[in-house]
């Protein structure tokens, strides 16, 4: 482990290169074995987290938690959250927003609005320079880089610059046979 002085008496440590864990399928690397274990499920298709209400299974625990919200029913939601049947009278029940097209449900109205666009095919975010349209503002923001000279991700090994970090990672892997940590 390397060390560095921080403040007056505080010493911080960081992992060295020999502790870097690399994916055997792609350029992904991380200093944390738990992150690599989660990442490997992308390639192995392992889904160890199963829904107690249906046949659905997920690779990530958080994904399963979101899925469980699709099984609407206040008692079921409260029991999954650890609130005993009948609920704690001092804890107000959170409102569940249900999709009118499918069984998707969420606690967040903004998430439901974004989700409904899957069904309605609505693409409210439009590029002013080309016909590109998208369902989410973040996708439009990323798209706009294609019309500018701005490339915020420079390669440290050559003059290449990328619009997105994943494009830089692909470049480094392909042209320099190296890895960029995603931590």
Q: Which key phrases capture this entry?
A:
alpha+beta, Double Stranded RNA Binding Domain, 3 domains, two-stranded antiparallel sheet, 6 helices, 12 strands, 16% strand, zinc-finger, zinc ion binding, Znf_C2H2_sf
Approximately how much beta-strand content do the residues carry? Answer: 15-25%
The N- and C-terminal alpha carbons lie at a distance of 17 Å
For the report, how would you describe the main beta sheet? 2 strands, antiparallel
Q: What does the overall shape look like?
A: flat
Fraction of residues in H or I helices: 25-40%
Question: Quick one: how many beta strands?
Answer: 12
Mean pLDDT figure = 76
> Using only CA atoms, what is the Rg?
22 Å
Per DSSP, the total helix count is 6
Structural class: alpha+beta
Low-pLDDT stretches are 1-12, 74-78, 80-91
Strand order across the largest sheet:
1-2
Total domains, how many?
3
| H/E series | EEEEHEEHHEEHEEHEEH
InterPro entries: Znf_C2H2_sf, Znf_C2H2_type
Keywords: Metal-binding, Repeat, Zinc, Zinc-finger
GO molecular function, one term: zinc ion binding
Protein name: C2H2-type domain-containing protein
Please describe what this structure looks like.
This is C2H2-type domain-containing protein. GO terms for molecular function: zinc ion binding. Residues 21-48, 49-76, 97-124, 125-152 form the C2H2-type domain. Keywords: Metal-binding, Repeat, Zinc, Zinc-finger. The chain is α+β, with helices and mostly antiparallel strands and 183 residues long. The chain folds into 3 domains: 1-45, no CATH class; 47-122, no CATH class; 123-183, Classic Zinc Finger (Double Stranded RNA Binding Domain). 32% of the residues lie in helices and 16% in strands. The chain is built from 6 helices and 12 strands. It has helices at residues 33-44, 61-68, 74-80, 109-120, 137-144, 165-176; strands at residues 2-6, 10-14, 21-22, 29-30, 49-50, 57-58, 97-98, 105-106, 125-126, 133-134, 153-154, 161-162. The strands form 6 sheets. It has a two-stranded antiparallel sheet. Strands 3-4 form a two-stranded antiparallel ribbon. A two-stranded antiparallel ribbon has the order 5-6. Strand 1 (2-6) and strand 2 (10-14) form a beta hairpin.
């Amino acid at each position: 482990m390397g060390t560095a002085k921080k403040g007056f008496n505080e010493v911080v440590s960081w992992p060295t290169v020999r502790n870097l864990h690399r994916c055997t399928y792609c350029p992904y690397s991380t200093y944390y074995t738990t992150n690599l274990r989660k990442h490997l499920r992308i390639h192995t298709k392992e889904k160890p987290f199963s829904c107690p209400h249906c046949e659905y299974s997920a690779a990530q625990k958080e994904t399963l938690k979101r899925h469980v919200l699709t099984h609407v029913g206040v008692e079921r939601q409260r029991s999954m959250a650890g609130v005993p049947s009948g609920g704690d009278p001092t804890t107000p029940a959170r409102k569940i927003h249900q999709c009118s097209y499918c069984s998707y449900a969420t606690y967040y109205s903004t998430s439901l609005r974004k989700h409904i666009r899957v069904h309605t095919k609505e693409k409210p975010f439009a590029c002013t320079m080309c016909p590109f349209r998208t369902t989410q503002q973040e996708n439009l923001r990323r798209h706009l880089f294609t019309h500018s000279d701005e490339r915020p991700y420079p390669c440290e090994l050559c003059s290449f610059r990328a619009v997105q970090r994943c494009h830089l990672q692909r470049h480094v892997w392909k042209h320099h046979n190296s890895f960029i940590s995603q931590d």
